[in-house]
Write the structure tokens for this entry.
Amino acid sequence: MRNALTIPIQPWRPIPAAPSFPVHESKLVPPFERPGMVSRANLLDRLEASAAKPVVAICAPAGYGKTVLAAQWAERDPRPFVWLSIDERDNDSAVLLTYIAVGLDQVEPIDPAVLGALASRGASMAGGVVPRLAAALSAMALPLVVVLDDAHLLHDRHGLDALAVLADHLPEGSQLAVTSRGEPQLPLARWRAEGRLAELGPGDLAMDGQEAGLLLWAAGVAAPDARVAELLRRTEGWPVALYLAALSIKAQHPTDVAEVGFGGQDRLLVDYLRSVLLSRLSPPEVRFLTRTAVLDRLSGPLWDAVLGTGGSAEALESLERANLLVIPLDRQREWYRYHPLFRQLLRGSWSAMSLSRWACSPVARPSGARTMGCTRPRSATRWTPTMPN
């Protein structure tokens, strides 16, 4: 049951000034919790304890339960929540700010001039609309939480700058919360340095043994503690992988759950990773991931030496900031590893020909040696392995 103070758009309450585009109510309502979802009580306690921090960033790769956690928070917290599910259309700053204004107006009526300015063609965002909306937000009588779900989809600079202004005008006790697959293009570093930012990352959202057991049980798999611990080790607590493991186990109809294997080549996991992660990357990014997956640990200089090129450190840092299951091993962002299931998938995409070519590279064999029938061209000073497109 949704907390009475968490107020979605009320259809019987007309918007003071009609926007220039249709406002979809579904974008302003948190998703309903599906059966079988596990309550993240410890994380909810941390979110409640963060009430003094104006900004909350929940950043993790796909499948870590960011949206579910934020929706559970909205159920539990007594403050009203303004929810906005971000999509590409919100990269028009007028659209983004209109949805925020409509959401605020449903909690507490705001100055009609704000929505009027947003509906006006040619209105100055930075000079007119944003200051008015910021003033309306700072004048809210009740502390509230504004949630921007899937904030990684935002890339319009005007809209992002407007959000930074709004965050700086939050009334006492109110918060701006963003869920994002990667680090959103907001001034997180400044807010962090000012002590105004609360953060939850992949390590925080990873499930523990008790939560993993509850998730498997809710999916219809009664696994012994030892089997839960093994799945937890393989998945590193990644919730969606644990759920897909449960579906895989059920599909195999085992007589003993402990006998069923689960890894990066499981069909359900492969389909998921390809649809929600690899399909969104550019071909050069996929090739880079596939190439580097041969190493247990990697760094920019190491891979530059392997390929005889440059820029690998920047590529790794970019992939890590985008939360593409790339895990830094130090605070200097020099050494990295991939999530083991993701690495298994990437390594599985290698063809026999690719492996043969890799064996010819300098990193795989001493200079001048012959391996698997490969010969390094005499004229080449460096040899770059050719990987599948």
